[in-house]
Each structure stands twice: as C-alpha cells, then as structure tokens.
Amino acid sequence: MILTVTPNPSLDRTYEIPALERGAVLRATADRIDPGGKGVNVSRAVAAAGHRTLAVLPLGGPAGAALGDLLAAEGIEVAGVPVAGQTRSNISAVEPDGTLTKINAAGPELSADESRALLETVRTRSAGADWIACCGSLPRGLAPSWYAELVAQVHRAGARIALDTSGPSLTAALRARPDVVKPNAEELAQAVGRPLRTIGDAVEAARELRALGAGAVLASLGADGQLLVDGDGEHFASAPVATVRSNVGAGDASLAGFLAAGGTGVRALTAAVAYGAAAVQLPGSAMPTPKDLDPSAVVTDRGVPLGTVLREPAG
Length: 315
Description:
Blueprint: E1 2-5, E2 10-16, E3 30-36, H1 38-48, E4 53-59, H2 61-73, E5 77-82, E6 88-94, E7 100-103, H3 112-125, E8 131-135, H4 146-156, E9 161-164, H5 167-174, E10 180-181, H6 185-192, E11 196-198, H7 199-212, E12 216-220, E13 226-230, E14 233-238, H8 250-260, H9 265-279, E15 299-301, E16 309-314
Parallel strand pairs: 1-4, 1-8, 2-6, 4-5, 8-9, 9-10, 10-12
Antiparallel strand pairs: 2-3, 6-7, 11-16, 12-13, 13-14, 14-15
Helix pairs in contact: 1-8, 4-5, 6-7, 8-9
C-alpha cells in the first residue's frame, strides 16, 4: 500500500486549444476536470495500476467535496482533513504541440490546528504502508520545515518516505534524510544553486543532494529521460515518445511507477520511465493504466551518458 500526502491539492480543469492567443476568445476542442495535486496524482496512478493507495489531504468547501468525490470514483481511499479554506482550482491550456500554460491558485491558508491534524492523520493511517509519498508545494500557513517534521515522524514509525517538493521545503527536509527525493531538472538546479547543462551536471547535483541527506535521487530530465543516483551508483533510462499530448502529472506518474515497482534499483527506474512516457501521451492529467505502459520501449544504459546536453537546460 502506498500512502500519499498532498498538503495543497486542487481541482484541475484542462482545456485543449488550437493556439494560445492573448486577449482573444478561445474555443476549446476538448476539456476535462481531474483531481489535482502531486500526491493525488501519485495515488491515481497507483490505483490505476491495481495497487492499494490511501490519499491524505486537506479538503475545504465545495471544491474540496468535489475533489473527494472524484477520488472515490477512481477507487481511491481518502483520508480528508477538514479545513476552513476553499480547496484551490487550477486551469491548464494545452496546445497541439504539447505546449502547456498553467495557472495555479494559491490555495487555502491552513491554521496551526489544521497543520497538526494533517500530521496526526498521516501518523494514524500509515500502518502497513510500504511507502509514504509526500508531494507538492506547501500551502500558506505551513512552514518550510513542515516536510522535515513529517519525514522525521515517518521514520520514527519505521516507514519509508519519498519526497517530491522543491525550494526551501526540499532543502529543509534533506536534513531529516528522506529515503527518496524526486526533483525535475529545474528543481535539481535550484537545489544546488547553479545551471545544469548536461546529464553529467545532473549526476553531480544528485550526488550533492545525497551528501545532504537524501537516500536516493530520482531526477526527471524531461524528454532526455530519468536519472537514479543511489547507494549503488548512477543509472539512466529513457523512452521514445511519438507525440506529447500533456505533461501535467507525468512526473507524478513516474514516481508512482517507481514506488509500485519497489522504489529501489534499475527495475524501479524502468517502471518510472514507462509510466512517465505513457502519461505524456494522455490528455490532461489522466494517469496511465497497465494497458498504456510499454516497459519494453525503455532503454536503460549500462553507462550514464554524462556528456549529453540537456535539451532544456535547467537553471
């Protein structure tokens, strides 16, 4: 069972449009509404793969009620923490070439009591979890050290924790030694404070995060593939994608695949790449099902191509 924690979930409305034109009235060719938030997407991908998952998240107002209903409809067990503020709604516009424009709302401000209730819910509901995945930005009211506190709490209970966040929240949490962190290229560059031009640069940055406390670093490098740096060394894998329809939630799908495959080693990395490649070919933030996956298309290099220039340099 994989328990996910999403401190700032959302309802995600996605519109597919011919082109984004500022100041114009645009007509969507398709639209959809999905449960949103990085941890929520991990739970959705885990559930779609047929594994048990429990989503812990604050829920407030009509949007929060709708979010809980959408998750339940996907067969996901929800442990909602009632909050006074309204759960946020986000909007994404996707063009035919895969270009994504996203507007994320700030979300509610959590009180000290609501913050404690969220931590307590994780503590009481985490028995039997194989992994606890804590994902996304922190809402207003939660200090950057909140994730560090959660990592320490999870470790005291003897569980493993994967963390997908960025900025001060990631930096603070590293001191608590999360088992896995999952930055993308931009977040990895931000964490070490310098641009990343090549895969070799990304390897060095991942090593630095491990030196600061991360047990393993699973780094999404966009179209270039994914990198795993852990106690056994460095591993790299990629998969061809014919058409990118939407990259919303692709990194979350990757983390779900990684954890569902055990959360360690090349086998888990292969699953992460297969899940991510499948996700970008689906509309909106739809999560892949087993029929969408093609692990045979994943290329795992015996040696990491250190000199390869990243197609979208980070930082």
